[in-house]
Design goal:
By secondary structure, the chain is mostly helical. The protein contains 2 helices and no strands. The termini are far apart.
């Protein structure tokens, strides 16, 4: 699970880069989904070596 501080930083980045004002729940879901995706990609990469 991503910390509250990192979720807020993610919200700030999305607002600055894309002009989207995500609420905390949307940012938390999206941030955690991104972490899950990259975790899966890292596992695939590790297994393929």
């Amino acid at each position: 699970m991503v910390s509250k501080e990192l979720i807020q930083e993610f919200r700030d980045i999305v607002k600055a880069e894309y002009g989207l004002d995500l609420n905390f729940e949307e940012a938390s879901k999206t941030g955690n989904d991104l972490v899950d995706i990259f975790d899966t990609l890292a596992k695939i990469d590790f297994c393929s070596k």
